[in-house]
Design a protein that fits this description.
- About 40% of the residues lie in helices and about 40% in strands.
- By secondary structure, the chain is α+β, with helices and mostly antiparallel strands.
- The chain has a single domain, classed as Nuclear Transport Factor 2, Chain: A, CATH 3.10.450.
- The chain has a six-stranded mixed beta sheet.
- Helix 2 runs antiparallel to helix 3.
- The longest helix has 24 residues.
- The N terminus is likely disordered.
């Protein structure tokens, strides 16, 4: 009987603490700002690809970046800039992101996944319409968000 009474007392006393924990977890204040910041950086990155502008990409990609390109190649920062901008001679009519989901894992780590659709004309004069699915890992360093890792897979188009 004493054990049942003790278990009942512990359960009753623990309920308010459990309810409080759920209330605190539901507060998205910091996570929402992280998500908005990373989403904005992702949008800027895609716009820079369309314009063949290395500066915005160079600013958000970490010096110790490690990535896997759509063709399976391992890329550091220099390789990423070369592939996405410097040796990219495509002419774009569209470069846009969709289905982007950003998850914050603490105040300075976030993961973004989404789709990038790109349309235009290749250096060979042929039209293209491609969609890539990406996963980017972001870390805030010295007050600035940097992409430290990326994996890209082409899911449609040529």
């Amino acid at each position: 009987m004493k054990i049942v009474t003790l278990l009942l007392a512990v359960t009753v006393l623990a309920l308010p603490a459990l309810a409080q924990e759920k209330k605190m977890a539901a507060k998205p204040a910091k996570g929402a700002s992280v998500e908005a910041a990373v989403k904005g950086l992702e949008d800027g990155w895609e716009a820079a690809i369309m314009k063949h502008d290395t500066k915005p990409i160079d600013e958000v990609v970490a010096s110790d970046f490690a990535g896997v390109g759509h063709d399976g190649k391992l890329l550091g920062k220099a390789g990423l800039l070369q592939e996405q901008v410097k040796s990219n001679h495509d002419t774009y009519t569209l470069a846009t992101l969709s289905h982007v989901i950003v998850r914050a894992y603490g105040p300075n780590v976030a993961v973004a996944i989404g789709d990038a659709r790109e349309k235009g004309t290749g250096k060979d004069g042929k039209a293209f319409d491609r969609t890539y699915r990406f996963t980017d890992t972001w870390v805030e360093r010295n007050g600035k968000w940097k992409c430290v890792a990326e994996q890209v897979t082409q899911v449609s188009g040529k």
